[in-house]
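Give me the fold.
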Amino acid sequence: MSNVENREEYIRKLRSFIETSHTCRATHRRTIATRASRDPNWPARVEMFWLSGHPTAQRCFAWVDPISTSQTYAVLEIPPVIGAATAIQSALASRAEQPRAREAALPGSVHQNTVDQKSANERAIA
């Protein structure tokens, strides 16, 4: 499989995850390169999607965890999330502050999925 095919499959998986997690339509808009950080969990690139049919958000930022590639994140652009960097900060802060909360389906703007557990373990982090 070529890099283009791999990239297209990656975008399809993220789009599907967003549409399932947030119950709306997602259209890939672009890839955003993020600034380097000392945090190894900080992704180098984040995908931005336009949303249609979502009651409060127009955009969503999604990526696969760069260390644990079994983790997928989809963060809605709802203040204080205003861009890719704040989406990453929100996801990392939620993961660090509420490790047990990920086990329950809670309302919130950060959705995370463990690929090994598939959709049965989709979790929302407040």
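The longest helix spans residues 3-22.
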